[in-house]
Amino acid sequence: MGLPMSSLCHISAVLVxxxxxxxxxxxxxxxxxxxxxxxxxxxxxxxxxxxLKKLEPLSQMRFNxxxxxxxTENYVYHFRVCREVNSTLHxxxxxxxxxxxxxxxxxxxxxxxxxVFNGSDWIMLIYKGGDSYGRHCSGEKRRAVIMISCKRxxxxxxxxxxxxxxxxxxxxxxxxxxxxxxxxxAEDSHLSVGSILLITFASxxxxxxxxxxxxxxxxxxxxxxxxxxxxxxxxxxxxLVADGCDFVCxxxxxxxxxxxxxxxxxxxxxxxxxxxxxxxxx
Length: 282
Fold this sequence. Notes:
By secondary structure, this protein is α+β, with helices and mostly antiparallel strands. It is 32% helix and 24% strand. It starts with a helix and ends in a 7-residue tail after the last helix.
């Protein structure tokens, strides 16, 4: 029996709703703002663009860390890589501090004022333009420094705050660190010369054995061990090698006389008979 018309309409409406929801979520993700390096777009270097592209796999992840210092300081730091922590606010906040006691939020750094550079196994991501300090650091804007260290096999882990430097007059910052494989250098997959020669040699041996076996079996009609290519030659070579090892490795000369020799009858002579004369009756 077919479904009633009302049930079909209901199912169609549900499907349309979920499709619209999926399209809306995809559009929201595609419209998210990303990192903007400080300066004009034309002044961005190829290295900076390459590093931002390298960090792209982390952009859909969110990182949080809680810090408690006695009863006066209890904060949660929210961090995203080249994305806004709260895209609905449109404040470019890439790293935001939340006071757990009163719920106040403070932008530590913004993604529209980004700096990025790297070393052999690390990437330094800096968000500038955060909310201004009050009594510290001459009231300058806050800045977040995130050190991303290489750790193979891990997409991202161990996000933590190291320190907050706010005792200076200028250039104060919050220092964070995390591990990720995106900071690792590309592994050199090229084979060495020795490996290439070894593979080539092994391949030639395999071709020789398989091809010779097929020729001996299908063309010559050999059976058993005779199917092995050039069997007589390798057999003789094995015997020669064995003889060579026997000649080189034997500890004593082949023609050396034995250390012990038995006494034969020819050596006894007539002496034995003379020794028995005293046993005869007189």
